[in-house]
Amino acid sequence: MAEKSILKNNDLEIYKVKKTNKVVKVLIYIGLVIWVIIDLFPIYYLLTFSLKNNSEIFGENVIGLPKYWLFSNYADAMARGNMPRNFLNSIIVSVATIAIVLIAGLMATYAITRIAWKGSKLLNSIFMLGITIPIHVALYPIYVLLHKVGLMSTYTSLIVPYAAFGLSMGIMICTGFMNDIPKELDEAANIDGCGLWGIFFRVIVPLMKPALATIGIYTFLQSWNEFMFASIFINDSAHKTLPVGIAELQGRTTTDWGIVGAGLSIATLPMLIVYVFLSKRIQESFMVGAVKG
Q: CA 80 from chain center: how many Å?
């Protein structure tokens, strides 16, 4: 026993030496700085790319700061690509899609996991099949359906498919979180006078905030960046989204890539803002999921 305690004390001393070793700390900080540079370099490159002309982009000054800061690229991108309207369209489509996925996904999960009925497991299996289907495989059937019902070139032609394909992932995430909420809380709320809707809004929804934040981020990225559906289902300029507007900045014979970079910067900015404001919530959701797992 004495030998074991001596070994343990020695191990602790070795660990403390390693932990407080200045060389190790310096190496860790150097590694972290390199990692930060690697992570931030794409953003730096995109921003400098958007302020250059073609000659700098393709040889003269690929990585360095612009020799001539062409802020006019942003004005040209806003004018040529109809960016204000496309930006608004992307916001409308993304917000509506997120709202549908969050509301429908949470309610469906509540019905599947907390209410006892015969078809709950079968319905959950049907929803999970949606994860296995790539979104673009259904391109032609959705196109035919939208054309027949007269919904082409409308917000609905994008919102409904985006929400339908995002719903399966939303239900899967919600199911994992909701299964770990003790059902005794439902029983206690029921004793206090809460009905089905009272339990849902007063007990389940507040405890599901980390899951809802995660679903919202994934749904936003999917709907904000999607290009194929937006380019095929929308034929008028009044409903085009940002990815389609950026694609139209490329010319048939020559392309001013600085203007394209400006359009990409405009499209990337909302994602960065969303991450900055919701990064803490996302990290909390991952932490909760890891602890529960």
A: 28
Calculate mean pLDDT across residues 274-288: 66
Residue closest to 83 by CA, chosen among 92, 74, 94, 70: 74
Structure tokens at 258: 């600085």
Question: Which residue range is the domain that position 208 belongs to?
Answer: 72-292
Say how far apart CA 210 and CA 289 lie, in whole Å: 9
Q: What burial class does residue 218 get, using C-beta atoms within 10 Å of its C-beta: 0-12 exposed, 13-18 middle, 19+ buried?
A: middle
Query: Do 12 and 88 fall within a single domain?
Result: no
What is the torsional sign of CA 203, 209, 214, 217?
positive
CATH number, domain containing residue 140: 1.10.3720.10
User: Structural domain tally of the chain?
Assistant: 2
127 and 23 in one domain?
no
Tokens of 209: 């905030």
Instruction: For residues 81 and 185, state if they share a domain.
Output: yes
* Alpha helix stretches (DSSP H) within 22-138: 22-49, 54-55, 72-80, 83-114, 120-132
Same domain for 10 and 122: no
Kindly compute the dihedral angle of the four CA atoms of residues 83, 87, 89, 95, in this order, to the nearest 10 degrees: 180
Number of Cβ within a 10 Å radius of residue 270: 16
Same structural domain, 14 and 45: yes
Question: In whole numbers, what is the pLDDT of the chain averaged over residues?
Answer: 82
Given a contact cutoff of 8 angstroms between Cβ atoms, the answer to whether 171 and 131 are in contact is no
Q: Quick check: is 247 in a domain?
A: yes
Distance (Å, whole) CA 224 – CA 82:
17
Q: Is the pLDDT of residue 163 over 90?
A: yes
Same domain as 92, residue 6:
no
Query: What is the per-residue pLDDT for 159?
Result: 94
Cα distance between residue 210 and residue 283, in whole Å: 9
The arithmetic mean of pLDDT across residues 253-275, rounded, is 81
